[in-house]
Automatic annotation (TrEMBL):
Belongs to the AlaDH/PNT family. Residues 4-137 form the Alanine dehydrogenase/pyridine nucleotide transhydrogenase N-terminal domain. The lineage of its organism: Bacteria, Bacillati, Actinomycetota, Actinomycetes, Mycobacteriales. It catalyses: L-alanine + NAD(+) + H2O = pyruvate + NH4(+) + NADH + H(+). GO terms for biological process: L-alanine catabolic process. InterPro entries: Ala_DH, AlaDH/PNT_N, AlaDH/PNT_NAD(H)-bd, NAD(P)-bd_dom_sf. This is Alanine dehydrogenase. NAD(+) binds at residues 134, 198, 203, 220, 239-240, 267-270, 279, 298-301. It holds the Pfam family AlaDh_PNT_N. Residues 149-297 form the Alanine dehydrogenase/pyridine nucleotide transhydrogenase NAD(H)-binding domain.
């Protein structure tokens, strides 16, 4: 099978979907690997490193998309890539269709068979291809939020950990899943006072045990959410309803009453964000203000630390890539129902059909 890896084109996106080690594995199994020139450079992999393991490098994205039976990406296709989507190809990448009608239309109309990383499930119901990037984004959320909480970063000028005699910042995390608990760990490590909210009490029990009482856990409801957000110096949005748009949990009227100079980091922005005022931003221009509150809503946060993120992502994706390349998507999905859950569009004799699960969630 021809496996293609184009260079990522989203703003400041330096990850790549396959490492030279992954290419080596595929070539050893008899597959042809085609990588766009400089696709790996942002993650520290030269073209020569890919060629050394038997992959070919080609100068244009068009050449990769044209040849590949299995097209590996990191981020969803953006407008300049829509015309490259085609039938008779399997696209394996993050898609986040619930947040983008334009991308949904492009993928559906192209006739491609698309499998979304973020929808693939492990046997235990976990999200094995989302988790590594949620770990990265959760940790980065506090790092980015702490920067923007400084006066020069647009925030109130509060040091996360405080100093003896001065209160630390209050960091509120909405969602106690993978990104939320990783954010809490870094915030605790930096000396902040941390509150974490979730609907899932069993999950809060685990978090309480994990942090030995160092984090305040609160069952999420409108009243408690408002109370926590109004007292926060930093709020991290880390909720997920898999396959659906993020629920809008914090209204503009609550934001208007937040502390001046508070910072919101809405990690859940790739599913639409959990604040009414959230809209996607880029690493080039990561923040905007809503009244006196700074919003940071970068939809590809892990792209900023590609030397970490590319390894973390491809460690998780490679077994699935191998299954898709060795067996083809139909047999691979039949053998692994968790992979089949990632299938969002499929090409058949009558054209592409959209799976109903995601149709419902496009808002
Ligand atoms: N911006 C970026 O660069 C990145 C964004 N993400 C996104 O971060 C979000 C979170 O992902 P994970 O942490 O992996 O999800 P997760 O599934 O591990 O955790 C989500 C948590 O949210 C909770 N939740 C759902 N609805 C809630 C509500 N109404 N109130 C309170 N809690 C609620 C769930 O019970 C769960 O514990 C996803 O949208 C994911 O795509 C992930 C990586 C990078
Ligand atoms: C999960 C995701 O969208 C990212 O890593 O950019
Ligand atoms: Mg994203």
């Amino acid at each position: 099978m021809f496996v293609g890896v184009p260079r990522e084109v989203k703003d400041h996106e330096y990850r790549v979907a396959l490492t030279p080690a992954g290419a080596h594995e595929l070539v050893a199994r008899g597959h042809d690997v085609v990588v766009e020139t400089d696709a790996g450079i942002g993650s520290g992999f030269s073209d020569a490193a890919y060629r050394a393991v038997g992959a070919r490098t080609v100068p244009t994205a068009e050449a990769v998309w044209r040849r590949a039976d299995l097209l590996l990406k990191v981020k969803e296709p953006i407008a300049q890539e829509y015309s490259l989507l085609r039938p008779d190809q399997v696209l394996f990448t993050y898609l986040h269709l619930a947040a983008s009608q334009a991308c949904t239309d492009a993928v559906m109309n192209s006739g491609t068979t698309a499998i979304a990383y973020e929808n693939v499930r492990g046997a235990d119901g976990s999200l094995p291809l989302l988790a590594p990037m949620s770990e990265v984004a959760g940790k980065l959320a506090v790092q980015a939020g702490a920067y923007h909480l400084m006066a020069a970063g647009g925030g109130a000028g509060v040091l996360l950990g405080g100093v003896p005699g001065v209160r630390p910042a209050h960091v509120v995390v909405i969602g106690a899943g993978v990104s939320g608990t990783n954010a809490a760990a870094v915030a605790v490590g930096m000396g902040a006072r941390v509150t974490i909210l979730d609907l899932n009490i069993a999950r809060l029990r685990e978090v309480d045990a994990q942090f030995g009482g160092r984090v305040t856990t609160v069952t999420s409801n409108k009243f408690e959410l408002e109370r926590a957000v109004l007292d926060a110096d930093m709020v991290i949005g880390a909720v997920l309803v898999p396959g659906a748009k993020a629920p809008k949990l914090v209204s503009n009227s609550v934001v208007a009453r937040m502390k001046p100079g508070a910072v919101v980091v809405d990690v859940a922005i790739d599913q639409g964000g959990c604040f009414e005022a959230s809209r996607p931003t880029t690493h080039s221009d990561p923040t905007y203000r809503v009244g006196n509150v700074v919003f940071y809503c970068v939809a590809n946060m892990p792209g900023a630390v590609p030397h970490t993120s590319t390894y973390a992502l491809t460690n998780a994706t490679l077994p699935y890539v191998i299954a898709l390349a060795d067996k083809g998507w139909r047999k691979a999905c039949a053998a692994d129902p968790g992979l089949a859950l990632g299938l969002v569009t499929q090409s058949d004799a009558r054209g592409t059909r959209k799976r109903s699960r995601d149709v419902a969630s496009v808002g």
